[in-house]
């Protein structure tokens, strides 16, 4: 035995688990949070006064020299440039050795610091009368939600996009087997070892799991299980997110990703964690429910499988409410080109009135940036993962999306004006070439194409029975030939007076068995033919020389043609869709030829499928034109294939099916959408101009009123105001640029609050909130009448929030 050093202290056994220590530490900091928040407010105000040289807005509150002395004692000032800095780097900067426990302590300190900031922000919101849990969502985007009196009503009061993303997965940390209550050792049965936390992260930005689960009973096994939906032309088409394709990762990951929605300008609305599941319908249902509760009627939501989701929504418990509030399910422009043409006519952005130029693909752009979080949240705890995601989107909204809001409006206005200008020049020429005078004909063409494609969605029932009868006749003919051959062989080998040996008897038995089987098959096929003849009312059995036989033969050839076309379409469009993702489809002629040659070299499967298609096309009567490789490469979207599907009639000469007719129709609808975009932008631009005016004025007055009652909180209001105020100059410059565009039809003059309401003064101490402020600042003895200030404040807030 190694002797114990006399100077070594005995260590008391610690029987607490990590979960116990974490829970106790969290509860201890929760009890101290009010005092920590007060201390933070005092400290932050003191260093602000010290940095400003004891002059400025809050100079009367603290003595500068005293603040500097307090700061200098036992502490140093550090400018934090990255809260995710490595602790090892901090140790190197301080010249100390790194120990593993320092990382843990840094993480705990950071959590407490962020919790303090959250507490301060809640106080600021209460002081600004923005303490409603849903206030952020209701005012998420100035251009979408800051509605003004006298606005022209729009078809869609708010446009949003929603989608799932599996990059922000989190590895499941499982409990040890001793902690399990069940004997089930399967991966899904093992529960997480994470400690449930009472800390709220993300505010109303994150949907609670309990809220989501109430829609689980409305959700099929997965989002894409309704393959038998006869009203949906895209049924069975989407398979990439089926549960059976993603369930293998559930034993590894707890949260398999996020499902979120954003407004058309990019501001995050709500986020839901996808927990041990694929992209189930309960997630978009929960999102839609939350948005309907918050924004009400006339919402338009884009989703990559919006056509399928529309059916799911209508069948769910939300269906009646969604119909009453006139909710519209749409498909994004990028994903829409992978849908069937019939689906595009109802859901694609180009053909939806009131949508403007919005592509409803903002989630893809959002995820392209948020994917950078993947490595930091993969092995994080539940709390830290959600904390990182929530803070990221909060920062992104304030410093990225808001900063680019006026630029978004400016670029969209320029784009819309350019499309209108191009359409105004080219559309009359195209219409003259087609001999058209009235633009209303394009809506008629669209209706004709919809009716035509609808008629092709299902084979006529009588044709299906005729093809089945034709096939049974072929089977009967084959079984008749087999029976005749077996009978002939049996007749030759029938035993007579001649003596047979054992070998001959065995051979005869086999022939007899073959004849019996052939007779049974013939009788079975004959019975099937007779049953179909009864259904069809056939009085005389068809023969190969009959016209009916030839007609049905053409139908069978058509079916083979359709299948060959389906196979070719699947191969070609899959590659073209990938090229579209790389922004290469629809490029110049030379580049398309170059891409086509590259595909031709490595796409033997396409060439084989093309040969099979051409063979099937030549078998039709009359034969269909063969396709060359160059023609196939030129097909940009699935809609080009859909027009090849009808072998019963030739629609190639219909106006809406000709290349010129389709170009003219697309030009017309793009121009119409551009005019709608101008109308929406005129409204959004004035909303932004008014918001900039009102928000700055309102927060400045709030800051002044709070100076008397609580300088520390007033300082935080000042910091809150400066977050977005830094972009005001840029926004005003962009608004001016928009107003100088040739063709601008809106106004950048804000709708102002009546000046007399502001002149009366404001108080940021609403009725019933004095106690909360007194708890933070017991030594403040302001002799201000709180109720009178609350009354004045309520007047101006009512005007501000109602505008």
Automatic annotation (TrEMBL):
Q: Fetch the InterPro entries from UniProt.
A: KDZ (IPR040521)
Q: Which domain of life is it from?
A: Eukaryota
Q: Name one Pfam family in it.
A: KDZ
Compositional bias ranges of the Polar residues kind: 185-194
Location of the region described as Disordered in the Swiss-Prot/TrEMBL record:
1-25, 174-194
PANTHER family xref list: CXC1-LIKE CYSTEINE CLUSTER ASSOCIATED WITH KDZ TRANSPOSASES DOMAIN-CONTAINING PROTEIN (PTHR33096:SF1), CXC2 DOMAIN-CONTAINING PROTEIN (PTHR33096)
- How is this protein named in the record? CxC1-like cysteine cluster associated with KDZ transposases domain-containing protein
Please tell me the species this chain comes from.
Suillus plorans
